[in-house]
Write a structure and sequence with these properties.
The chain is of the alpha/beta class. The protein has a single domain (20-297), classed as Divalent-metal-dependent TIM barrel enzymes (TIM Barrel). The chain has nine helices and ten strands. It has an eight-stranded parallel barrel with strand order 1-2-3-4-5-6-7-10, surrounded by four helices. The protein is globular and about 50 Å long. The chain starts with 19 loop residues before the first strand and ends in a 7-residue tail after the last helix.
Amino acid sequence: MSPSRPAARKKATPKTHERLGAHVSTQGGVQTAPARGVDIGATAIQLFTKTPNQWRDPVLDGVRIAEFREAYAESGLNGVVAHDSYLINLASPEPGLTARSIAAFVAELTRCHQLGVPAVVSHPGNYIDEREAGLQRNAQACAEALRTAPGEVMVLLETTAGTGTSLGSRFEELAELRERIPDDLRHRIGFCADTCHMYSAGYDLAGDYDAVWAAWDRIIGLEHLRCFHLNDSKTPFESHRDRHELVAEGSLGAEPFRRIMRDERFNDLIKVLETPKGDDMVTNDRRMLRRLRGYRRGGQKAVR
């Protein structure tokens, strides 16, 4: 099903400090993304700067860059992040894939710099052979890309579900990855907390919310958390599977999302949905955003 057509010249409704939205399509060009965010009622968006399952990198000309910047400025949106390609593996032990991944990551950072997107969310990668070696390869490759690409775009390492040989399912690994980045680049490393991934990895947001965030603060530091992916899970606690579900309709239930939306520590952070879109690509996102805002308001009536 093709993504919905973006709304024209529509502006996001101002909501003080709110930075809430969803991952939106860039079909038709990256400049179409802001209008799609407005169309679902978002105040922030996440996007791909290229097709995520292909190596080929688009060339952004001056016209396309200007169109995106103008569309974003006129949209009234209050936040934007990118997500990198699914093919990139900065932890790979295979030299050819490592070189290709670094080049692709440099291109991701460069496009974000050109577009004015301040951060790119990135999976820490798969180590394949040995975890310790994978951590070191990821840190070295990430540092090389940060030094090569222009600008000061941040990298937000995403929590993972712990499937196979993926890195980043444990807070200790994420903290270690950041610590291995050279001192002069470390300020450009932050984190994105995916609620589905955290729960699947064994962090019980549903049953022990306070303890999870206390552990994050002790091991990583809450000051380094910059973004949320608000996804429920189709699979049980500690399943180590990455299967997203609509908010409050999976194994996490409503309470963790209610608490995140009311948690003052997270008020200014970008929060985006990566939940199932449905046939028309907009109705589910609109409904989930209404639901999340209802949680924030604290109303007792169910929000659908």
